[in-house]
Helicase SNF2 (Actinospica acidithermotolerans), 722 residues
Amino acid sequence: MVEEIRTAAPADVKALLERAAGLRAKIDGLHASEQELHEAVRGAYQASHTAAVRGRLTGIPVERLKDVTGARLPADRLAEAGYRTVADLDGVTAETLQGIPGVGRVGAERTVEAVRRIAEAAEQNTGVTADMDLRGPDAAALLTSLYRARVADRVMERVREPAARLSGAITSLATAAKPLGGRVRRLFLGRTRRDEAQRAYTELDGLLANPRTVKDLDRIDAAERRLQAKPPRPATARNDFEKHSADYFSTLSRIIGDHHRSEASRGFLTDDLASRVGAQQLDETHLRVALRPYQAFGARFALAQRRVVLGDEMGCGKTVESIAALAHLRAEGARHFLVVCPASVLVNWMREVASHSTLRAHRLHGSQRAAGLRAWIRGGGVGVTTFEALQGLDVPEKLAVGMLVVDEAHYVKNPDTMRSIAVRAWCDRVERVLFLTGTPMENRVEEFRNLVGYLQPEVVASIGEIDAVAGSEAFRRAVGPAYLRRNQEDVLSELPELVQVDEWTEFGPEDELAYKEAVAARSFMGMRRAAYASQDPASCAKLARLVEIADEAASNGRKVVVFSYFRDVLDLVCRTLGEDRVFGPLTGGVQPALRQEMVDRFSATKGHAVLASQIQAGGVGLNMQAASVIILCEPQVKPTLETQAIARAHRMGQIRRVQVHRLLAADSVDQRMLEILETKKELFDAFARRSDTAEKMPEAVDIGPSVARQVIAAERERLGLG
């Protein structure tokens, strides 16, 4: 005999359903609060964008209108009537302009059409950038709304899963139990339907009483309070933005989108391929960084296509895209990953993996190689090694490597070298392989064939010279299954106009010996330039990285300025890079008129060139906006020197985003200087942020003689020199 299920009383069912409805409303309110914050961002962005467009139109004099139409326009008459800029004419009708003496119907109509076309172009191509006036009301509203949206992102990251799980379960069970809530309705229920409703009621009652549910609801309550908190003070949002501007623009891009650049951001892939990549899931559980949409697309591309070349231009974030792909695979269960890179960027990779993900990085190079290899094999994570060390890396065949990443992959363009043979062997062994190179492949078809040959040999046959001749976009479409490249101009319209990268390196044997001798001699200046003692890129990591950056800039047709405090370092740079492309060195001994002449010749050179300059001489008074890549050979004791030097290129008239690469040696005077300067800078910012005091007291964040002595003492102690 089947035992009859006892039916709950209608009043009990109704009370439970009301409670369930209240909880669903709470969860829906959480999402509604998040959407309200996003709407606030959109509204604030629109106001800032409108102001930015207006500012751009204000900077265009009416005389420029003829450049658009190619016809003669009554610019003088317009100026006399008070219309001096395109902004003054925006929205003005042809009928109004015809009322100006000397302006006829044709001239008025042409003027209106020219203004419309310029305004549309400005609307599409003007972004809100990091050099906006942070004190203005529009910027304050935007930064405040983004601050709250970033808080919401962090809050929702912790409760999104339990909120979705509970909402779905409560909705389903409440719907099934609802027929028991009315006395009349339950009379017409069949036994089977009534039993199903009773089971749903019992399960819902148990769910809401479950300690895990109670805990999740407490977290949802706390999240709602965080989302409803009052806005921060503008100064708080402004200071946070200055420390985390890239994250702010990532959040902005994700909320407002960038639809007019969507094709460029996906590397001009075919629609079918782009759709397949877009459908690829990306689990960001193990990431500690917010990805920009194009970076997420790059990671999805690597995952969907499995064996590819990621060729984004330097400064777009290829390293972060790679780490995002590794983090996704870790979430799927993969445990071991291998990165192969030049020795000059090994330290950088270790730091990037640690700072941007929860994955553990293991050094498989140098004196720590054996211990690192054992730890990596045993515990998993990201093994980071060099092209040279890869050849002798003893890894058990049974060890499954989830992905192989080869940085600066153009190093293996010649398939006959030992390092290329070693890389090929690993490519044959690992299912997923990601090659990284910032060197554009459009005009290097044979090199590209060699690289793709490691990954997708079947694609090689489809690559012809005609693809490259047809242009970069046509080339990218033809090789889309194996190659994705985005230029800075394609994807960084919403980002700060200045990209700064700390390039961490390590001493070679000769440089390390010179450094220890300088420390022993208590020579602060000797310590600062010891990283260039070997004078050979093969053993000098800073010099090797400098050459790599300069060569990649040459591949992209960019001009470079190399700054150093030391004349002998600049002489070394000039000898290493070669006089055929280097101007300088520009030093304090060069007369001012000759300095400008040197800069003028550098600027007039077509395509790539390098200007080597002492930072004291070239950092002030000269305009170098022809350059878009800046290399700082060592950190400066006065950060104002760096700021002024960067401002020589990052200024009005600059049409390309400026990349700043600061060369740093780990565990050295460079690292100690940065630590001290950062501490002093934070204290200084707390009292004199963006004030006249900051401009009048640069020594507040300089390293003076007493601090230099502290650095020497700390390094002597670290090296055991007493």
User: Anything to note?
Assistant: The domain at 57-125 is CATH 1.10.150.20 (DNA polymerase; domain 1). The first strand starts at residue 307 and ends at 310. DSSP finds 35 helices and 13 strands in the chain. The chain has four domains: 10-52+133-240, 57-125, 259-491, 498-718.
